[in-house]
Amino acid sequence: MLAIDQREALRAMIGDLRGRDVSDGEVTHFKVAAARALTPHASAVLVDHQFGWDAVLDEKAIDPGCALITAADRFIPGPGEFVADAVIDEDVDPAVVREQGAVAMKLLVIWRPDGDPAARKAMVESFVARCRDHGLASIIEPVSRAPRAGGPYDVDAGIIAAARELGALGADIYKTEVPTHGSGPDDEILTRSRELDDAVDGHWVVLSSGVRAERFPHAVELACRAGASGFLAGRAVWASVVGSDDLDADLHRVAVPALRRLTRVVDEAVSR
Question: Which residues are known catalytic residues?
Answer without folding.
Answer: 175
